[in-house]
Amino acid sequence: MGIKLYYTTVTASREVKSQQAEVMRILESKNIHFELIDISVGGALRDEMRTKSGNPTAVPPQIFNEDQYCGNYEMFSEAVETDTVEQFLKMV
């Protein structure tokens, strides 16, 4: 697959829910296929996300192209605003 989106189905944070939904909506609108990885199913996936991102306190959503870290919501949002999503996702 390519693009991987680490997210969570269990959170009390409206901000996290909103950010995750926006990333998914934008990727779908651009016909970019992605794999969802739910970190709420186990601590190992959360730890994997944090290790791969290089941030021990990272929270979803975190975006990767295979195992290459692309960024978090803020970085993705900036790429959307500057119309550089494909470059952000390391697709070009």
Question: What number is the mean pLDDT?
Answer: 96
In total, the number of strands is 4
- Describe the sheet with the most strands: 4 strands, mixed
Instruction: Report Rg.
Output: 12 Å
The total count of helices amounts to 4
Strand order of the largest sheet: 2-1-3-4
Which structural class do the helices and strands define?
A: alpha+beta
Euclidean distance between termini CA atoms: 15 Å
Query: How much of the residues is beta strand, in percent?
Result: 15-25%
Work out the helicity level.
Answer: 40-55%
Question: What overall geometry do the principal axes of the alpha carbons give?
Answer: globular
Give the H and E element order: EHEHEEHH
- Low-pLDDT parts are none
Question: How would you characterize the overall build of this protein?
Answer:
Pfam families: SH3BGR. Could act as a modulator of glutaredoxin biological activity. May play a role in cytoskeleton organization. Its main location: membrane. This protein has helices at 14-29, 43-53, 73-81, 85-88, and strands spanning 3-7, 34-38, 62-65, 68-72. It is an alpha+beta fold. Strand 3 and strand 4 (68-72) form a beta hairpin. The mean pLDDT is 96. It contains four helices and four strands; from the N terminus they run βαβαββαα. It is globular and about 35 Å long. The longest helix is centred in the first third of the chain and has 16 residues, at 14-29. A four-stranded mixed β-sheet has the order 2-1-3-4, sandwiched between helices.
